[in-house]
Structure formats: C-alpha cells, structure tokens
Amino acid sequence: MSKNTQPIVQIVDLVQIYKGKVETIALPGINLKINRGERVVIRGKSGIGKTTLLHCLAGILKPSAGKIIIENRNIVDFNEDQLADYRCTTVGLIYQSYNLAPFLTVEENIEFPMVIAKIRREKRKDRILELVDLLEIERYLNQKPPYLSGGEQQRVAIAVALANKPAIILADEPTGNLDTETSDQVYKLLSNMCIAHNTTLVMASHDPEAKSYADREIVLSKLKSHDL
C-alpha cells in the first residue's frame, strides 16, 4: 500500500437501484475509502455490481443515493459540464472491450483525450512519445486498432487512459478478452505504472490472479451493505 495514506476516494452509503418491472438493487449501501496511490481490485460474481460501482466512480452513472467524494469533491452533485471535465482530467477508464476508435490510428486514439483537454500540440506529441515508449507500442503508431492483437489493443487503451495524467485509473475487467500470459503482462504494466506515478488503481475483475497485483482485494456480496 502507498505510504501516503491521504484518501483520494471516499464512498458513503452508496446505493444504486435499477427500476423496472423487477426492481434490482445493484449496490446495497457501500462505504469505502481508497488512499492515493493504492491499488485496489474489486471481485465478486458476475452481476454483483462491480461495473456499476466503477461507472458511479467514473461519473457515468448517477447513484440512487449516497456520496462519492473524490479529492474532497462530491461528484454526485456535479452538473454535466463538471462531470465531463472530471472524466477528462481526473479519471482514466480502461474497458474489457478496449473502447478504441477503429477509424483512428493508435497515435490519434492516444491524442484524442488530450485534444478534448485542450492541451497544446507540442505537449500532446511529447506525451504520446512518452507513453508509447513506456508501453512498447511505438511501432504501432500509424496502425489502426482492428489490425492489432488483443494485448496490443489493451496497451493502447492503457495509453489512452493515462494520456491526461489522471489521479485515478478505473479498469473494468481489463484482461477479460486476453489469454493468461497476456493478462499477466497487462496486470504488471498497470500495476508498475501506477506505482511509478502514485496513481490510484481501482480494478474490477473476476480473475483471482488480479489480487497479486493489488494492495487490497474487496469482494462484493449480494444484497448486503458493505463497510470496506
């Protein structure tokens, strides 16, 4: 665990209920603190609420009740412009499906979040070169994602997530489509980069090996409030 014990994430009584013909309680009341630089893996059965929790942390999903305090700001109270800025600058998202634009090159995919953040072109180019060197994907800069392997696409996705130097990386089953050897490589990359830059990592995974690359494992269980 990081020596810096200042919490960057505080979740208070977080509830998410999906309405419909049958009401579904996805999150039954979560209380959780995550320290700056800490690597946390969230595990549990399929449908238990792992992705829902990450989507709430990312500001993609507004919870039914509770608070999500990130760097002393309750993002539940943010308006759409504030949420867009938060997703652009504070959190980086990594998905199982890579979520890359297939019609853009690797370079353009990595550059896109920096364009949104209005970073100057010279700084964008420097950051791209830094990331592709760290992730060993420089030779793919002019390729488009469909022509890359799953492991290569996930490396690009990590570069995209890290482009704006976010304080928090949220990874949702980042190795779900990868074989065991490639999964280990991705876990190691994510873990080492977060350690090097004191970046907080919150990763949802059903893979028991994921905990080997985390400081703490959290296991969600159904219909039970959690103080984690």
Question: How are the elements arranged and paired?
Answer:
Layout: E1 7-18, E2 24-35, E3 39-43, H1 50-57, E4 65-70, E5 73-74, H2 80-89, E6 91-95, H3 106-116, H4 121-134, H5 150-162, E7 168-172, H6 180-197, E8 200-204, E9 216-219, E10 226-227
Parallel strand pairs: 2-10, 3-8, 3-9, 6-7, 7-8
Antiparallel strand pairs: 1-2, 1-4, 4-5
- Quick check: average pLDDT? 91
Helical content, roughly?
25-40%
- Please give the alpha-carbon distance between the first and last residues: 15 Å
Shape: globular
Q: Which stretches are low in confidence, meaning pLDDT under 50 for 5 or more residues running? A: none
Strands, count? 10
- The assigned structural class equals alpha/beta
β content, as a range? 25-35%
Task: Tell me the radius of gyration.
Answer: 17 Å
Largest sheet: 5 strands, mixed
The DSSP helix count reads: 6
Q: Main sheet: which strands, in order across?
A: 5-4-1-2-10
SSE string: EEEHEEHEHHHEHEEE
Overview of the molecule:
This protein is globular. The strands form two sheets. Strands 5-4-1-2-10 form a five-stranded mixed β-sheet, covered by helices on one side. It has a five-stranded parallel β-sheet with strand order 6-7-8-3-9, with helices on both faces. The longest helix is centred in the C-terminal third of the chain and has 18 residues, at 180-197. The protein has helices at 50-57, 80-89, 106-116, 121-134, 150-162, 180-197, and strands at residues 7-18, 24-35, 39-43, 65-70, 73-74, 91-95, 168-172, 200-204, 216-219, 226-227. The protein has six helices and ten strands; from the N terminus they run E-E-E-H-E-E-H-E-H-H-H-E-H-E-E-E. The protein is an alpha/beta fold and 228 residues long. Strand 4 and strand 5 form a beta hairpin. Helix 3 (106-116) crosses helix 4 (121-134), helix 3 runs parallel beside helix 5 and helix 5 packs parallel to helix 6.
